Amino acid sequence: MGKTRSLLTLTVLLLTIGLAGTFAFASTPEKGDQDTGTGMMMGSCPNKHGMMNMMKKGKGKMQGHGMMEGCPQPGMIARQAVREVRSYISNAEKIGLNEEQIKRLKAISEQLETDLIKKKANMKVAVIRLKNLMKSYTPKPADAKARVKEVSKALEDLLDTTTQAVIEARGILTPEERKKASAL
After folding, report:
1. Using one digit for the tens of pLDDT, what is the confidence trace for 126-170?
2. DSSP letter at 49?
3. Long-range contacts of 89-92 (CB under 8 A, 24+ apart)
């Protein structure tokens, strides 16, 4: 029983540390805010992987090709996705988007941001439930496993929502427009 409790405690500790930073993703910086490359989502990435450093190295172009490089935390990926969609809208004239494309991108952006707020709440609830279960001296392994699955499902939902929104937004642009956007 001691080994099971230790294993469960370690699992909760790692999940807590690993997911603690993912809760900041819903409040993305507004236009003009700078990411200094510090405060990465889970705190496990050194500054060399910060967004500003990725941008300096040419990995953070608007289409987000650098989005999955370095240390791909869910919160960072979600913020980058919101920024990417917003950047298409704010650079619509430079890219050559028509009114219908802008309208569709705005709808995707709004839906993505509201979905991320909900996913953030679901993630917090799942982690709280797991933490509360692990406060018990003798949690049942099956209950702990169910809570871990709940956290995993919340994370999967977050990443699925984020990637689908980016794919949909990119699909609105023509190949020529994507080249222009990537060059910005």
Report:
1. 999 999 999 988 999 999 999 999 999 999 999 999 999 999 999
2. G
3. 90/31, 91/62, 91/181, 91/184
Closest C-alpha among 65, 114, 62, 68 to residue 84: 62
Domains of the chain: 2-18+72-183 (1.20.120)
Say if residue 91 is exposed, middle or buried (CB neighbours under 10 Å; 0-12, 13-18, 19+): middle
HSE-CB of 100 using CA atoms within 13 angstroms? 3
List, as own/partner pairs, every contact residues 122-129 make where C-beta atoms lie below 8 angstroms and the sequence separation is at least 24, other chains included. Answer: 122/154, 122/157, 123/19, 123/22, 123/23, 123/151, 123/154, 123/155, 123/158, 124/23, 125/154, 126/150, 126/151, 126/153, 126/154, 127/15, 127/16, 127/19, 127/151
Closest CA to 112 of 72, 164, 173, 156: 164
How many Å from the N-terminal Cα to the C-terminal Cα in the chain?
Answer: 58
* Six token digits for residue 47: 């500054």
